[in-house]
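Convert to structure. Protein one:
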Amino acid sequence: MLLNRSLGSVLLLAALCLGSARPPAPQPGAQPSPMNVSMVQLIANPKEYHGKWVRVIGFCHLEFEGNALYLHRDDFDRAISRNGVWLNPPDGKEGLTNQYVLIEGVFEDANNEYEAGFSGKLTRVFRMEPWASRKEAPKVFKK
């Protein structure tokens, strides 16, 4: 009887721990696929996209305590943080700083003072890659 109680306590504790863990980032091919949104949509309606897996393109700047994705390069240059979202990039993406990138991750409405200057944040970033310009990728942008 004591063994059953101990085993039950251990199983309950394990279930509580697993239940409170953050879910992993979606895997390729998993349903549903990310929502294609623009930075304008995220900035204008952050509550609408809170907790959703999104795909967005913007200007990325990475620095210690200053990782963000902006609507335009000028928004970064002029420090207009409301036209950007805080970014938690995966490790090894430092080479993507100061260029336009495509990102897939979970969007969260800004909810604390550290991110208060931004219109939200992108967490659990699963995909982060450079976005080519028309000049760099003429096959992609046919007229």
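Protein two, convert as well:
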Amino acid sequence: MGQRDDHHPMRCDDCRESISAQLDGEPLPSGATELDIARHLETCLPCSRFAAQTAVLHREVRVRPAEQVPDLTNAILGSLPEGARPRPVREWARYALLAVALTQLVLALPALVFGTDPGATVHVARDLGSFDVALAVGLLWAAWQPRRASGLLPTAFALAGAIALSTMVDLIRGDAGPAAEAHHLLDLAGVVLLYALSRPPAAMPSRPSRSAPIPV
């Protein structure tokens, strides 16, 4: 089995060394070719078994179950700079803010376009409509880009607070009725929803990692 002859010059040791080199992606030993290996395997049963067993072992070593590791997601994200961390979002607040913004936009358009607002001149009505439209657009932007909510919150809070104060004064003095001022509740709702978006929800409990076959 270890002798050369004219018909099949490759020895078993050379063949097995060449098979190992092939599996490892290394150059074949000097003088050996893939044709020499194929011819030797056709006539040598022990080397054929060696080739089959080596191929199976090589495949099992390269693809094996990964070891279980602890979930380090929170630790890794916690080590990132504040601006680089992906922030979870309260999705319900986004959709609620979208509804509030669209409603406010629809209610503000008549005052902006036609200058119609009970108890106000055309000029004042359009000014008030402009403020409401601007706030509605800001709320829409925050619903689309929740990370912008905290930046819009101070302006929306100041505007809603001023409107709430003037509304209370008008109601106390009897200059306007509750029905006429009810739409200003949308401003307060927008501020509350902006605050909800600016505060990330509690972190969900991490799941244990599963073992899965991966190539190495």
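DSSP finds nine helices and two strands in the chain. Residues 12-65 form one domain.
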